[in-house]
UniProtKB/TrEMBL annotation:
One of its GO terms (molecular function) is 2 iron, 2 sulfur cluster binding. Pfam families: FAD_binding_6, Fer2, NAD_binding_1. Residues 4-97 form the 2Fe-2S ferredoxin-type domain. PROSITE patterns: 2FE2S_FER_1, 2FE2S_FER_2, FAD_FR. The keyword Oxidoreductase applies. PANTHER family: NADH OXIDOREDUCTASE HCR (PTHR47354), PROTEIN RFBI (PTHR47354:SF5). Keywords: Dioxygenase, Oxidoreductase. Residues 104-202 form the FAD-binding FR-type domain. Its cofactor is [2Fe-2S] cluster. Coiled coil: none annotated. This is Ring-hydroxylating dioxygenase ferredoxin reductase family protein. Gene3D superfamilies: 3.10.20.30, Nucleotide-binding domain of ferredoxin-NADP reductase (FNR) module, Translation factors. SUPFAM superfamilies: 2Fe-2S ferredoxin-like, Ferredoxin reductase-like, C-terminal NADP-linked domain, Riboflavin synthase domain-like. It comes from Roseibium aggregatum.
Length: 340
């Protein structure tokens, strides 16, 4: 029997992934898996279950004009009580996960290895008790062994892999940094809660401009893994900006994936004035009008808040507004991710 994977993205950033059987409606599949999607009538009449389908093919059965207009249906809206998937789908639900009586899932894991990639970053590899189905770009809350606390990190590994990897910035005195630097041992028990976040790769339907600041490269590694698996019809420009050459961690992996995919241009930038490099400064010194393809492009950015603000201002100075601008901010205080 055919089964499709449906990612339900709730408005509070939580994602739950369900399986929808052949000829099964999304609302029924969600209820079967103990997720109460908004619903009143279940007959395509009230419109309570109207969601936006960001990705995937599906069939809509009966619905009344009062519940959803044909124009909304053409835009990608669907009544989940009448939606029968014909492929894997990503569905944006206009309600919080708590309202739908669900929550992020917690998966046990154990540390496989900690790699000191540079003075400023660690690589953490974790074997999960079971794979986490996430959208490339999303994050989980990782517990810090030996403490009751957690920190939020984007996956740098491919979605659905049992071995998960993360790029983690080395923050002197930071809770996770101290653990990784001083106490981490293979076999240490950790938990991963998620996935979460609105920063994830949408269907690639136009030119792409990806901007990574430091360990903000992590979600792009996950995205590249998926693109390498699924193929690419539009070009990607990846700007990877760090302070020093030693901070260009995982560059070999980036270049290998870029070569495998094709149509991916990787551009590195160093900020330190005493470094020798082809491109110096910040991404805003190098992103051009041509890169933005006259606005017919999607921009993804993962980096510290000043980088996000600077890029926004740069677009204004260039007089070009990209079709879509997705970003995730991370703070040096180890605060949880903020996505938009």
């Amino acid at each position: 029997m055919t089964s499709y994977t449906i990612a339900l993205n709730f408005e509070d950033g939580v994602t739950r992934v369900i399986q929808c059987e052949d000829d099964e409606k999304v609302t029924d599949a969600a209820f079967r898996q103990k997720i109460n999607l908004p619903m009143d009538c279940r007959d395509g009449v009230c419109g309570t279950c109207k969601c936006f389908v960001e990705q995937g093919a599906y069939e809509l059965e009966f619905y009344m004009d009062e519940s959803m207009s044909d124009e909304e249906a053409d835009q990608g809206y669907a009544l989940t009580c009448q939606m029968i998937p014909e492929s894997d789908c990503v569905v944006r639900v206009p309600a919080s996960s708590s309202v739908c009586k669900t929550a992020p899932e917690t998966v046990d894991g154990r540390v496989l290895a900690v790699d000191r990639l540079s003075e400023t970053s660690f690589g953490l590899r974790v074997e999960l008790a079971r794979p986490i189905n996430f959208l490339p770009g999303q994050y989980v809350n990782l517990s810090v062994p030996g403490t009751p606390n957690h920190r939020s990190y984007s996956f740098s590994s491919a979605p659905g892999a049992q071995e998960a990897s993360f790029l983690i910035r080395n923050l002197p005195g930071g809770l996770m940094s101290t653990y990784l630097d001083e106490r981490a041992q293979p076999g240490d028990e950790v938990t991963a809660t998620g996935p979460m976040g609105a920063f994830y790769l949408r269907p690639i339907e136009r030119a792409q401009v990806w901007l990574a600041g430091g360990t903000g490269l992590a979600p792009f590694l996950s995205m590249l893994e998926q693109v390498a698996d699924q193929g690419l019809d539009h070009p990607i420009i990846l700007y990877y900006a760090v302070t020093r050459a030693a901070d260009l961690v995982e560059l070999g992996r980036v270049n290998e994936l870029a070569e495998q995919i094709g149509a991916v241009t990787v551009i590195t930038i160093l900020a330190a004035e005493d470094e020798t490099h082809e491109r110096k400064g910040f991404v805003t010194d190098h992103v051009t009008v041509d890169d933005l393809n006259g606005g017919d492009c999607d921009v993804y950015l993962c980096g510290p808040p000043p980088m996000v603000d600077a890029v926004r201002n740069h677009f204004g100075k260039l007089g070009v507004e990209p079709a879509n601008f997705y970003y995730e901010k991370f703070n040096p205080t180890e605060a949880e991710a903020e996505a938009a």
